[in-house]
Amino acid sequence: MLFSFVKELDDRSAKLLKSLNDKQRAWRSNNPRVVVWAFWIGDDAKKAQQWAVEHNINDIVFSVTSKEKLAHWKIHDMASNVLVIACRRKTAMATFTDLDARDIEKLESRLISLVGGKRRD
């Protein structure tokens, strides 16, 4: 599982989540254990859903959560976003902060190795 938490509904977050949205289909075809969840750390579910629709973020689970509910993830206050690669028990295996959409390409091989799948060419 891959959990992405964004603090702002801005262009940077849109590009990051759109990249995850677009890649999830390919990742799942190679390994069905890869599931992407994305959350805005905010308080207005309707605003978040409207924003997701506007940015065509429709292939990943996208919802809203509060900072208080994320205490166990230890999300740094200064990070604009946090991406956590976790196993089925939701144990963090790797954590990345302040990512841009182009960083997802770099993390792809790491993701595949962490979930135990082999990449098919």
Describe this structure in words.
With 121 residues, the protein is an alpha/beta fold. The chain has one domain: Glutaredoxin. Helix content is 35%, strand content 23%. The chain has three helices and five strands. It has a five-stranded mixed sheet, covered by helices on one side. The protein is globular. The mean pLDDT is 86.
SSE layout:
Blueprint: E1 2-6, H1 11-30, E2 36-41, H2 45-54, E3 61-65, E4 81-86, E5 92-97, H3 103-114
Parallel strand pairs: 1-2, 2-3
Antiparallel strand pairs: 1-4, 4-5
Kindly list the characteristics that best describe this protein:
single chain, 121 residues, Glutaredoxin, five-stranded mixed beta sheet, 23% strand
Number of domains: 1
CATH class call: Alpha Beta
The number of helices is 3
Strand arrangement, major sheet: 3-2-1-4-5
Shape: globular
CATH topology: Glutaredoxin
The residue ranges in which pLDDT falls below 50 over 5 or more consecutive positions are none
Mean pLDDT: 86
- Provide the succession of SSEs: EHEHEEEH
Radius of gyration: 14 Å
Summarize the structure.
With 121 residues, this protein is an alpha/beta fold.
